[in-house]
Amino acid sequence: MAEQQRSSPALSAEATDSRTLLERLQQSADVLDQLSVTRAPGLPEGAQVTLRQEAEALREMRGELGLLLKSWSLLTDTSQKLLNLPPDELEAGVRAALEVLGRQIDAQRGYVNLLSDDGEHLSDSYEWCAHGMQPHGLATHRGRSVVDFRWSLDELRAGRMVTVTDAAKLPLEATEERRLCALLSIRSYINAPLLLAGRLIGWMGFDAMDQPREWKPEERHLMRLTGHVLVNAVERKRRDAQLLQEKEREQRAQSLGILAAGLAHEINNPLAYTAGNLEYLRERLPGPNEPTDEECRQVLDEALEGTLRIQRIVADLKALSATSAEAMEPVDLKAVTESTLRMAANQLRHRAQVVRDYDTVVPRVRGTATKLGQVLLNLVLNAAHAIPDGHASQHRITVALRAEADEVRLSISDTGCGIAADVMPRIFDPLFTTRRSGEGMGMGLAICRDIISALGGRIGVSSEPGQGTTVEVFLPRAEHDAFVAPLPRVGPPSLGRRVLVVDDEPRVLDLMRRLLRGHELVTVANGREALAHLGQDRAFDVILCDLMMPELTGMDVYHSVRDTWPGLHDRIVFISGGAFTPETKRFLQEVRNPVLAKPFEAQHLRDMVMTVGSARLD
């Protein structure tokens, strides 16, 4: 009755019309029966038999029509309870649908069990009980194995219903089913398979607790109809969950991009003056033919190499937020590998012995030394972290380079802990990590995969828990193998320009004074000071302006200069540690002014100062 009260007026009217039609069919059959018993005047001989046959046909028609109407009513009611619900309310909808069907077929308990993807465990369970009945507590069984119910599962996977009229007469092979029925006082039960594209995803069942009973054909028919609706609802929930996961991954990737670009910007500021000062010191040292402390020069060279590697890491962080077109070139992968192993030597030597296994001739590959160096560093450090510290003599990290048909294969194998099977599908997900807090952000393999894919290669991982892991990277060969690495440009400071430098980082201003000695420099610490100074003095050949500053940004300075002193804005060179906001990216695409990316080479800075602004502005 409560279900009828919740029905819409239209459905109530249809139900009333259906009952009226069934009553009229029954009345017609009764009238024909009466006529067949009482012979009316003028009624031909044998007409009574015909009347009785017609009455029986009407009753059969009434029964079939009643079953169709009952099926339609059940299907409509069940669909309303399941298909219009949001995914997080599916459990309540399944219970409501079980109650409708359970009352219809006079069962004492109903349940829906859904299987895991491998078909061997329960992933979800829902249950309904008639008034006064105790539930099985199936919700606590989620995650449990169903391997012991082989007899029932074989029937269900074949698409057949499991119809048990008397649980005491179950076949011998249904050992677990018999035990469970005795434990739960189940006298009879029926299970209907839930199939999706021919695959068993679960089953729906009903129990009779008082006595053995037959399950009528119309009851099995109603169960199959309800099962189809349940499968559609479960599949819709799965699709909605997948869409939600995709949206979450997309939002996480966007957030990761903003985080990476912001982090790159923050790193680039100290990196700029660190690398610049080191380069300045190297320039001031005596030449190679003059007496000097060779160890001091070596320390400076190694420090510069370290800052270059940091610069490459930052470039990869920036690549997460915006894809930049970097010129491809033939890369000596063996040289990049050796450089990487030298850089990581301190972390490797306490964990494993490094074994090099290179082909005699390793062709150059298509890519960039920057990108490939970052991939190698990530993979080598991952291998090191998989090995416990302090047992270097017992472990190996093998780095192999092999020339293949059109590719070069780089493989890095370790004898570490390996990767668990349930973790393997997620190893390339951004921000996924199995390390302890503070030991990694989970971006390494995601960055490696993106870099390798962008270079036209591919990456794969194989692992055995407790035995170790092997990562294989396949890179396309370079079309032209000849390549000469450019020598670092080291030259004397250029002279004769008047330069305004605007930057909120004091050490960057100090670096500018050192690197641009011989030029006339004026330095200010923010955008407001810059505009105030330009209001009094605009005779500058070049304005070096930081792009991201508090209060007034470089964009604000540009717009004010352009609007107040037209023409002077063409002399602005932006200094940027990374444009990580959409507004900043659009701005740099629209303006024609050059951008000096932090950290910058000394000679690049000097060249920029000499080429921007052909004459002083009076």
UniProtKB/TrEMBL annotation:
Q: Which residues carry this modification: 4-aspartylphosphate?
A: 546
What reaction does this catalyse?
A: ATP + protein L-histidine = ADP + protein N-phospho-L-histidine
Q: Which organism is it from?
A: Myxococcus llanfairpwllgwyngyllgogerychwyrndrobwllllantysiliogogogochensis
Spell out the GO cellular component terms annotated for this protein, sorted alphabetically and separated by semicolons. plasma membrane
Query: What is this protein's record name?
Result: histidine kinase
For this protein, the Enzyme Commission number is 2.7.13.3
A Pfam family for this UniProt protein? HisKA
**What GO terms are given for molecular function?**
histidine phosphotransfer kinase activity; phosphorelay sensor kinase activity
What region holds the Response regulatory domain?
A: 498-613
Keywords of this entry: Kinase, Phosphoprotein, Transferase
> Domain Histidine kinase, which positions?
262-479
Tell me the domain of life. Answer: Bacteria
